[in-house]
Design goal:
single chain, 13 helices
Length: 379
C-alpha cells in the first residue's frame, strides 16, 4: 500500500527537458507572499484587521510565522509574508470557509491584492543556514512549461443541468490576447451531475487573465444567464457577493505532470472523485503520486494529467491517447487494478460500494464534456 506521506517526486537523474512537473506535494516548506494595495486613509483599519487575523492564523496547523511590512515609498502598499511547514496545510486553510470569514473585514479597506506561493529551495546565512539541514527544502527545481492552470467549480440547482450545459456550450469565446505577455490558451468545461468545472490554461499572468475574462461582454452575458440556476446565490451589483462566490469557486491545481509529447488524437477527459469528508487532499496526493510515476512510461495512455483539489472536491483532468475504457486503471489514476481498494478508502460511502469494480468506478467518476476550446496560436 502506498504511503500517503511519501514524497511525490524524489531526486532523480536530470529530467528530460520536455518533461513538465509541478506539485504542492514536495514536502518542502512554503513561502506565501501577499501584495496588498490599501485605500488611502484605511491603513489603520487594515492594520487592526490584520492584527485580529494574526491571532487566529497563529493557531492554524502547519503555520510557522508571518510578517507584515509597509512600503517605505508608498504607505498604501503592504506586503504580508508567511511561512508554512508545507503547501497542503496552507491550501487547506486558505480554501476553507474559516478563511473566507477571517479575511472579510480586510476587504473593505483593500483596493487590490496579489498572492504568490513558493516552495523554499535553498537557504543561506544566519540561523536559517545552520538549520537548513533540519528544514524541509525542495531538493531540486522542477521544469515548467510557462502555462498556469486553474479551475472554477460551482453547483447548479437540480433539474437545471441540461439548460446550464446548453448555455455554457454556446457562448462566444473571449479574446485570447490579454496583453503583451498574457494570453488564454485553453478552456475546458465539464459537468458531473449538477457540478460544473471550468478549467483554464493561461500563459502569462493568471490574475490578469481572470480579470480580462470577467470583463468580456460574451462571458458576462453567459454568467448572467446561468445566475438564476446557481445553488449559491450571487449578486453582480454587490462586489462582495461576487468576490465571495469566486473565492469559494476557486479549484486550484495541486499537481500537474506531462511527458511533453503531443498527439493530435488525444482526448481531453475529466474525472470527479467524491472524497470522504476531510480526505480531499490525501486523495489528490495519491492520484498525484501515481501520475508522477507513470509520466515516463511510454506505454501509458495518459499524456498529461492535472489534479485540482478544494476541500472534498477532487478533479483530475487528463489528455489520453485512447478512450477511458481502454485502460480503466490508468484512467482512474491507479498503477493497477489491485490499488482500487486503496483508492476507495478515501472515497465517500457511495463510491466505496463500487470497490473492486473498475468499470463502475470509472462510470461514477467520468465527467461530461461541455466544451473544450483552444485559442489560435500566436501569429
Amino acid at each position: 500500500m502506498t504511503a500517503i506521506s511519501e514524497r511525490v517526486s524524489e531526486p532523480t537523474e536530470q529530467q528530460d527537458s520536455k518533461r513538465v512537473s509541478q506539485s504542492v506535494f514536495d514536502g518542502s516548506r512554503l513561502r506565501v507572499v501577499l501584495l496588498v494595495d490599501v485605500y488611502d486613509g484605511a491603513q489603520q483599519q487594515f492594520l487592526e484587521a490584520y492584527e485580529e487575523m494574526g491571532k487566529q492564523v497563529s493557531s492554524v496547523p502547519g503555520h510557522v510565522s508571518d510578517q507584515l511590512c509597509q512600503s517605505i515609498e508608498n504607505p498604501s502598499q503592504w506586503l504580508i509574508t508567511s511561512e508554512w511547514e508545507s503547501a497542503p496545510p496552507f491550501l487547506a486553510w486558505v480554501n476553507s470557509e474559516e478563511h473566507v470569514r477571517m479575511v472579510q473585514p480586510m476587504h473593505s479597506c483593500i483596493r487590490d491584492t496579489r498572492s504568490l506561493r513558493f516552495h523554499i529551495v535553498r537557504e543561506t546565512g544566519g540561523e536559517a543556514g545552520r538549520a537548513a539541514g533540519e528544514r524541509r527544502l525542495q531538493t531540486s527545481p522542477r521544469i515548467g512549461d510557462g502555462v498556469l492552470r486553474h479551475a472554477l467549480t460551482f453547483t447548479v440547482k437540480p433539474g437545471s443541468e441540461k439548460k446550464v450545459a446548453e448555455l455554457l456550450a454556446n457562448y462566444e469565446s473571449p479574446q485570447a490576447r490579454v496583453d503583451d505577455t498574457t494570453r488564454l490558451c485553453r478552456t475546458s468545461l465539464f459537468m458531473h451531475g449538477n457540478r460544473v468545472v471550468r478549467a483554464i490554461e493561461v500563459r502569462g499572468d493568471l490574475l490578469a487573465a481572470l480579470r480580462h475574462v470577467a470583463r468580456q461582454p460574451e462571458i458576462r452575458a453567459v454568467e448572467e444567464a446561468i445566475n438564476p440556476y446557481l445553488e449559491q446565490e450571487r449578486d453582480f451589483a454587490d462586489q462582495e457577493s461576487v468576490r465571495v462566490f469566486f473565492t469559494r469557486a476557486a479549484l486550484p491545481a495541486v499537481h500537474h505532470v506531462t511527458r511533453g509529447q503531443d498527439d493530435e488524437g488525444a482526448q481531453r477527459q475529466a474525472l470527479s472523485y467524491p472524497a470522504r469528508p476531510g480526505m480531499g487532499m490525501r486523495l489528490a496526493e495519491l492520484l498525484a503520486q501515481h501520475d508522477e510515476r507513470v509520466a515516463d512510461d511510454p506505454a501509458s495512455p495518459i499524456l498529461r494529467s492535472t489534479v485540482f483539489e478544494r476541500d472534498d472536491v477532487v478533479v483530475r483532468l487528463i489528455d489520453v491517447r485512447a478512450g477511458l475504457d481502454v485502460d480503466p486503471a490508468a484512467a482512474l489514476g491507479l498503477a493497477d487494478a489491485a490499488q482500487v481498494s486503496e483508492l476507495t478508502t478515501l472515497l465517500d460511502e457511495d463510491a466505496a460500494k463500487k470497490d473492486g469494480d473498475l468499470a463502475r468506478l470509472l462510470a461514477l467518476a467520468r465527467m461530461d464534456l461541455v466544451t473544450d476550446r483552444r485559442s489560435a496560436p500566436d501569429a
